[in-house]
Amino acid sequence: MDLQQLIEKFDLQKHPEGGYFKETYRSEGKIENKNLPNYFTGDRNYSTSIYFLLTSESFSAFHKINQDETWHFYLGTTLKLHMISPEGEYSFIRIGNDILNDEVPQFVVPAQYWFAAEVIQKDSFAFTGCTVAPGFDFSDFVLPTRKELIEVFPQHKEIITQLTHH
Cβ-count burial of 29 within 10 angstroms (0-12 exposed, 13-18 middle, 19+ buried)? Predict the structure, then answer.
C-alpha cells in the first residue's frame, strides 16, 4: 500500500499535531469526573483508540495529554518518539519492526509527558495506532508554541525547535 491508499482505505483526516488519524474505538462505559484526578474536566470514556499515520514530510509536534498513551506499530518505517518528562528529562525510543536493533513494536508514553514523533527514513511513512486510557478528549490535549515550551525547558531548545511548528 502506498500513502494515499492508506489515507483513503482508513478514511484518515489531518491531525492538529501533524499526520493523519481516525478514531477507531471509544468505549461505551465512562469514568465519572469525581473518580478522576483533578486535572480532568468532565467524565471520560474508559478507553479510546485511533489509527495514526505520520510521513517523513511532517512530524507530530510536541504536545501532552492527561493520560498514558500506548503506541502500536503496524507498518512502514521507524518512528522516533521524543519525550520530555514533567521534571525535564529528555529521552527517545524507536518504534518499529526492527526488534534486533532495539526498536519496539509497542510503547507507553506516560501521562503528562511532552512528546513528539518523526519518521526517520526519507520518503516514507509510519502507520501506527494509539490507545489512550482514560479515553481521549481534546480538552486534555495541550499543543504549546515553540516559545512556551522553550521557556519551560530551555535545555532542550534544539529538539523543541526541530519538533514544534512555531
Answer: exposed
